UniProtKB/TrEMBL annotation:
Coiled coil (UniProt feature): none
Entries under Pfam families matching the protein: DUF8212 (PF26640), HET (PF06985)
Boundaries of every Heterokaryon incompatibility domain copy: 34-121
Disordered: annotated span: 535-557
InterPro entries the UniProt entry points to: DUF8212, HET
Name assigned to this protein: Heterokaryon incompatibility
Residue span(s) of domain DUF8212: 234-257
Length: 557
């Protein structure tokens, strides 16, 4: 039952002379049968009977002394000679002992003959059992699930009922299905998916932020050192890393945190609350062989089935169905590429989605710590490069900040059609938010018949969230507007979608490449004409034929 070198300190249920509380120590298979107490600490922790109080012989001076005496009496009446109570049996002044006890806590409760749940805030049987704060504490989750037998008591030590008898009420209160509550073989708890077990802890709290991770060690059958001071987020990330070493259950990634919905993020959640709505996710069983995960200095190395959704957005299918009770489709997450490196580095972006195709397995690196800026982060040394253009159009004019761009050609190789234009095709990106880097005017080749517009103006820049943004307008629509007006008024969005104009349909796609130390967004422009009935001159809108603005030269040649 016990691992080698397991040690426990137990409290004798028979007080010594003068009602002195007696502690014993036992190891391995010499550990006697015992009962165990589950309770919530007093709001003022100094009221609890601690190990040092028993050693000093002054436990009766503490407010919680009667709770301990009642537990001893109940265990003694049930025929148990020993009981384990955390406040009394752990020397918290020893960090090594505290770490060992917390890592062994699930085993302590699992090996007990019976667990007594003392509800300090329930005095009468008529009171609402679910109103007790015992249900919302982090530590009491494993204390509810690990013991083979568990009975609830009021603060007067009146029996309320067993876990089995109250299983429906417990299910309604905690969301834990009854099959995980009534089965005498407690190993059934570890058969639940990772997401399901995480969901049980999603609404629980602990006094110390790190304990929200430490209290779940036994629930996931993992061990790790305690590092108080690291913070709850780091502790919870370490817990998930330990879980990954023991399981390839993809529901570990099936979380949806509203605090992370619009930022780049790693695959692992920051807190159990992210799994609040994930209790029904189960992995596909014996579905396929998966390569092991590995945490590296580039992030989590993992292979996921991937396909592209937009220019900078991919979909990664998880090996679990999208809803409970179905075997069709996959739960999926969206990923965006993290710029600045030539390796396949992605970051999670947004919530969970349902898909019915998976794409090909691709090796990925997904860093956990990412800048809080959303989307494709703009930095110096990132360039737009006009790489491909529809054959029916030519680059006729370009406007940009000459001070920013200077006269340097940046030593990029020219595209094959570069000889047909005297204008630059590479632009250093303006790193400011909502900035406009360049306006490029594309003119229809002279031998082609007109369709109501001579061409299209393309806008390249960044959005308010530091992502690439692109836009396009028919020339006649904005021929009176200057550079700054176009920047402010033309709607821009992410690349990868068709832009519908009066006389054209424009598709702007962007591919990320890396050359030397530079990140390059290669821009491919596809322009399709939309045939419209030609208007008579008398039907023209006022001012259409004027050429008064700074951009009026674009198509006047």
């Amino acid at each position: 039952m016990w691992d080698k070198d397991t040690a426990m300190r137990l409290l004798s249920t028979t007080p010594g002379p003068g009602n002195r509380l007696n502690l014993i120590e036992a190891w391995d298979d010499r550990i006697p049968k015992y009962a165990i107490l589950s309770h919530t600490w007093s709001e003022d922790a100094s009221e609890e009977v601690l190990f040092r109080d028993i050693e000093n012989g002054k436990p009766s001076q503490k407010a919680a002394y009667q709770k301990v005496v009642g537990a001893l009496q109940q265990a003694r009446e049930d025929g148990h000679h020993y009981i384990w109570i955390d406040t009394c049996c752990i020397d918290k002044s020893s960090s090594a002992e505290l770490s060992e006890a917390i890592n062994s806590m699930y085993a302590y409760y699992g090996a007990a003959e019976i667990c007594y749940v003392f509800l300090a805030d329930i005095a009468e049987l008529q009171q609402d059992l679910t109103a007790s704060r015992w249900w919302e504490r982090g530590w009491t989750l494993q204390e509810l699930l690990a013991p083979a037998k568990l009975v609830f008591f009021t603060n007067r030590w009146t029996s309320i009922g067993s876990r089995d008898a109250l299983s429906q009420l417990i299910h309604e209160t905690t969301g834990i299905e009854q099959r995980y509550l009534v089965d005498a073989d407690r190993i059934v708890v570890h058969d639940a998916s990772i997401a399901r077990r995480m969901s049980w802890a999603a609404r629980r709290r602990t006094s110390r932020s790190e304990d929200i991770a430490y209290c779940l060690l036994g629930l996931f059958n993992v061990n790790m050192p305690l590092l108080y001071g690291e913070g709850g987020t780091k502790a919870f990330l370490r817990l998930q890393e330990e879980i990954m070493q023991a399981s390839d259950d993809h529901t570990l990634f099936a979380w949806d945190d509203p605090l992370c919905s619009d930022v780049l993020h790693g695959l692992l959640a920051d807190r159990p609350a992210a799994f609040a709505d994930s209790g029904n996710y189960e992995p596909y069983q014996d579905f396929e062989e998966r390569k092991p995960y590995l945490m590296t200095n580039r992030g989590l190395q993992i292979e996921l089935c991937l396909y592209r959704m937009y220019s900078h957005t991919w979909v990664a299918a998880l090996s679990c169905p999208p809803t409970a009770g179905t075997s069709h489709g996959f739960l999926a997450i969206t990923l965006k590429r993290v710029p600045g490196t030539a390796v396949q580095r992605m970051a999670r972006y947004g919530g969970l989605i349902e898909v019915h195709k998976r794409g090909r397995p691709e090796p990925l690196y997904i860093p956990q710590a990412i800048s809080k800026a959303t989307g494709i982060t703009i930095r110096p040394s990132i360039f737009f490069r006009l790489r491909e253009l529809s054959a029916r159009f030519s680059l006729d004019y370009a406007q940009y900040d000459t001070e920013l761009q200077g006269t340097d050609s940046y030593d990029f190789p020219d595209p094959v059609w570069r000889e047909s234009t005297k204008h630059r095709t590479v632009y250093l990106m303006n790193t400011e938010s909502r900035a406009l880097t360049a306006i490029l005017a594309f003119k229809k080749l002279a031998y082609l018949p007109p369709n109501g517009s001579n061409g299209v103006a393309l806008l390249l820049g960044s959005s308010s969230s530091s992502e690439i943004s692109v836009g396009a307008v028919d020339w006649q629509q904005y021929q009176h507007q200057d550079f700054q007006t176009l920047r402010a008024e033309v709607k821009r969005g992410p690349p990868g979608s068709w832009i519908e104009l009066e006389s054209h349909r424009v598709h702007i796609s962007v591919e990320t490449t890396f050359e030397a130390s530079r990140t390059i967004y290669d821009v491919k422009v596809e322009i399709l004409e939309v045939m419209r009935p030609r208007k008579n001159n008398s039907d023209s809108e006022p001012g259409v034929g004027k050429r008064s603005s700074a951009l009026s030269r674009i198509f006047s040649k």
